[in-house]
Design goal:
The protein is mainly beta. The chain has a domain of 97 residues: Immunoglobulins (Immunoglobulin-like, Sandwich), CATH 2.60.40. The protein contains 1 helix and 10 strands, in the order ββαββββββββ.
Amino acid sequence: MNCKSCNKCKKDCGCPQGFTTANVCATSLPVCANPDPCTETFNAACIVYMGDDIVDVGIKKGDRMDLIIQKLALIAVNPGCGLPTSACNAVVGLATTSISSSIINLSWLLVIGALNYSVEYRQVSSLTWLVNPTLGPTATSDYITGLAAATEYYIRVNAICSVGNCYSLTIKVKTKSV
């Protein structure tokens, strides 16, 4: 539904030109918490960019807003990864799919050109990153086991390419209590 042609209220929906909202996200995404385009807040996974491609930063028509935000943040902290000339793009879409007291399941989007992936994690109170076994080029999920209950962890995924590596943004996750 186009935000400018909102038919559920009599006001401009407030979406910037070039963006639309989806009533239901794709099957791999969560259902929009508030799909009404006339409300004041939106789930960023449910807003889709409909403007022209922005080649220099890898933003394309149809990209979800949450991924656009990640791409822009990654360029700020890891400038070589987001450019079209780099050998590898940064991992985007890193999210938890389930969390227990000792296991965190993760997913991310495939990076074209990645030869392998490395999931790294550490307790918030630690400075030492631990590394899961390396995953192959088509991996889009992994899990971390043996974690302490009710503990906060930093997690990131490294795309390993023929020339250089590019990390995802680091997420902070807390395991459940026993």
